[in-house]
Amino acid sequence: MRQLIPTHADEVDLQTAYAYPANGPWLRANMVSSLDGSAVRHGRSGGLGGPADKAVFDTLRALCDAVVVGAGTARTEGYRAPREKAELADERQRRGQLRAPVLVLVTQRLDLDPVSDLFTGAERTIVVTSETSDAGRRERVADVADLVVAGGDAVDVGAAVDSLVDRGLTRLLCEGGPSLLAAVAAAGWLDELCLTVSPQLVGGDGTRIVRGAELDLQMRPAHLLEQDGVLLGRYVRA
Question: Is residue 233, in this structure, part of any structural domain at all?
Fold first, then answer.
């Protein structure tokens, strides 16, 4: 993997390239898109990935405190809660982190299976919902996860992120989907976007990486990497 900007380099240390800022909470998103702007291929973002995208995906997971994802995306993409990886756990502890990232599921409907792999990670999963979600489902989820109620009629994403930061989860990684990413950006919490551009045209009517709220958020490029025609950009809030 090589770096194209801000300077050229034939080799890139991904841990250094994607290191979190030293101070304060920081929320980055990681998304993938085709050349024609689709965030999915055959209904899944995983259809756009490849070795380069996987390398960055794994690096971002290794560096974060928590992975924040919409429950619908977690189901579609076949998520499971992060497990401890022996080769990474000690280094995470040296950085003052838990030995594995915490999975944070954002959901209004609480349409979750309590015995699924979403709740069998190294750390207890956090589920974020609103006051108007089904009380019976909240009770079932609370048996297998930490429940955070943020917002009245709908999930208040800004309040949800505040609650994660209050728990000491300050290095946050949002993996979508597009509606959640829009809500994060609209709440003023999107500090950084990591975007993989896959060199393929997929057509169809797949959604973009952001869907929902209209935004006016200026980003500036921090770096651009390339491998096998795949472009891996990192953009920070201007």
Answer: yes
Residue 151 belongs to a domain: yes
Q: What are the tens digits of pLDDT across the range 80-134?
A: 999 999 999 999 999 999 999 999 999 999 999 999 999 999 999 999 999 999 9
Q: pLDDT tens, 189-217?
A: 999 999 999 999 999 998 999 998 899 99
Torsion of CA 160, 166, 171, 174, to 10 degrees: -10
DSSP 99-140: SSPEEEEE-SS----TTSGGG-SSS--EEEE-TTS-HHHHHH
**CATH number where 220 lies:** 3.40.430.10
**pTM of the model as a whole:** 0.96
Count of structural domains within the chain:
1
Q: Is 84 exposed, middle or buried (0-12, 13-18, 19+ CB in 10 A)?
A: middle
Give how far Cα 5 sits from Cα of 14, 17, 172, 235, Å: 14, 12, 25, 12
DSSP 45: G
Domain boundaries, position 120? 26-33+46-237
Q: Which of 236, 235, 234, 228 is nearest to 2 (CA)?
A: 228
Determine the Cα–Cα distance for residues 47 and 66; give it in Å rounded to an integer: 24
Residues paired with residue 105 on neighbouring β-strands, in sequence order: 69, 127
In-domain check, residue 15:
no
